[in-house]
Amino acid sequence: MGVKGLQSYMENNCGGKVCYRVNINQVIKEFREETTSTEVLILVDANSSLRHLLEGLDWMCGGQYNEYSERIHRFVNSIRDAGAEPIFFYDGPCLTQKRDEWIKRRVENYHRVQHLMNRIRTGECVAEVSAFILPTGISMFQRFILTEECKCKVIVTSEECDEEIALYAKQNPSKVVAIMAQDSDFVIYNAAKYYLSAQHLDLNDLSTRVYSSCELAKVNKLDPRWLPVVATLLGNDYLSQDSLRKFHFRITNWRRSGFPRHQILIPAVAKVISEKLTIGMSVEEMSSLLNREVFMNSATSQTENAIRSSLNSFLLLNVTGNTKQITDSYGKNLLDALMLHSNFNPMAAQVLVHSCVEHSNAFEDLTSQFKATALVYEPINSRYMGILRKHQEFKPGKNVIQEFSVWSEHSVKRARNVPVVFPPFEVDLLSLTQSADPTLISEKLKVLLWGITGKNVIDEQSFQSDLERLFLRINPKFYICSLVLYYLHQIEQLLNLTEVELFVSMFVILDSELYEFKHQIRAYPNYNAIHLATLFNRGIQAVGRIISILGPIFPSFSFSQKNFFDGVLFQKIFLQEIKIDKASESDRAKSIRSAIFDFMNFKV
Questions:
Q1: What domains lie within the chain, and their CATH numbers?
Q2: 3-state class of 137 per DSSP?
Q3: Which of 134, 160, 258, 453 is packed most tightly, with the most Cβ within 10 A?
């Protein structure tokens, strides 16, 4: 999550050698000449890098996935054309010791979203707003495009990905030319020859800014090996800036309001390091000494542990695999198998390892009469966790899990216990997720349909066969989105058939390939259409989680949101800016409508 303000300090206060612009083509060419390497890699922090490709596209209305897909393709192709292969890394679950910071950011996002939703509800223009929230489920779509279309290697890490990216770079110095991200932690790691800024990337000439760790250390008269200590003493996710206030005031003689600026603070921190520490000290020795130096009479074992955790993190001593933390062999083998899938969802690791799950902000009005989407999909999420934990059904404490989710202003500040609902029939999830045997499709569908409906298909075999038969009539492109609509219409009864019709009309238009996509941000989006879009897309995320643990079951294109959703198009359909003439539709369109509505009308 970075050291706040460090990159701005490097850009504005350190001179041209610390932060400067480079051409990535030239960087790769020089690296090849220096290393004679036949394989050149750029490690990409997908969470921070791919979000910048959304600039200029709609996000409030739910996202423009076709246009976003084109930008991801261009990003990958530009790097490949320059002679390198990108590897994309995704975050796993939030670390316990970083939970407070995660909560703080979710609360900030809550107020940002509510401010925007209030403006939209009252009809104000939102075209020029600077706030930004990632569309719900965007990472699932990114991974689909990267793995299935671009054929890139994607790694979903065991925890936050920055440490594993840095470790990968350090272990492969003859192959990794650069890390691309927007996180000042990579300045501290000093893991690759170049740390490239995703925010400042220009795909037209493939240039961006470089942040040099060695030059930053040189400016402050330090050995680069001391950068982890600098990051610790400046404040980060382990050791907050507030907790270091007195120390910062003392070493800078700061007498004004607020905190000392980095151009004053960083040289003062460097001076403390130079005077108090020596190369070769262990983490334990540094933690003990710095605890006394920083906190003086207020030093405790807790503050020393925070310093130690920060140092271990920046020194890459914390990196461990999820499966090392699982004591039962079935669970370990299951998580290993799940992580091999391109659509692996990191929540599986939270359920199997951490006994705590999290749901971030969605773009919704949580002060309205609408039910919060986190609560709408709680039944599906509970059954998802029950499928994952079926092998632990009778073990103590496995029938409940702690959840951090944003469904009101204060909900995320404290975890609540959510029930884990186990399937009422035997499930060997490890066998299902490992197998591509088509004879197991019916067994996988039984688990999936129970996850969506909560219906006991063992007691009512006719229900499964009838529902399965109707479902399999649907075009595979619309499998996942039809399951979401079925849940919202038949199970939760939150959508009426008129609203279902809006979504199905969108599916038909997108399937026709006649819709002209345009990069567009609507100045006055419709409030109710935004609610429906968020409700739908959060469902894609929830249903997608269940599918991700069942192994091969649907064609890969079923996971591609560009096949069935476009936020701007949905607004136009909702507002009747596009007229739907079902009578003149093609036979294919009529077949799509008929199959989906036959499925929608099946009563539970």
A1: 6-92+125-219 (3.40.50.1010), 224-314 (no CATH), 325-600 (no CATH)
A2: coil
A3: 160
